[in-house]
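stage 2 :: seqdesign
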């Protein structure tokens, strides 16, 4: 893995029905922006890069749609060891 790339971690809060993805610990300086209905990105205040995103009502969306969920984001993946 390249030095400047970080692994993505996720957490699902079943009670709140919220799915979180993050590359770094949240900071009060981070900027949050809603980019779609119930999809929020967290942006590092210094680098201006996306460092996480949150999907609200995750299970409700899945039950309502009954198919894959399309997010307004794009990503590149690579295998890390």
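stage 2 :: out
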């Amino acid at each position: 893995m390249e030095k400047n790339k970080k692994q993505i971690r996720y957490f699902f809060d079943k009670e709140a029905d919220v799915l979180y993805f993050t590359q770094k610990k949240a900071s009060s300086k981070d900027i949050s922006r809603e980019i779609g209905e119930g999809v929020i990105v967290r942006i590092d205040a210094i680098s201006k890069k996306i460092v996480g995103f949150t999907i609200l009502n995750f299970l409700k969306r899945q039950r309502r749609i009954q198919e894959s969920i399309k997010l307004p984001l794009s990503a590149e993946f690579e295998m890390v060891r």
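stage 3 :: structure notes
- The chain has one domain: 9-65.
- The chain has one helix and five strands.
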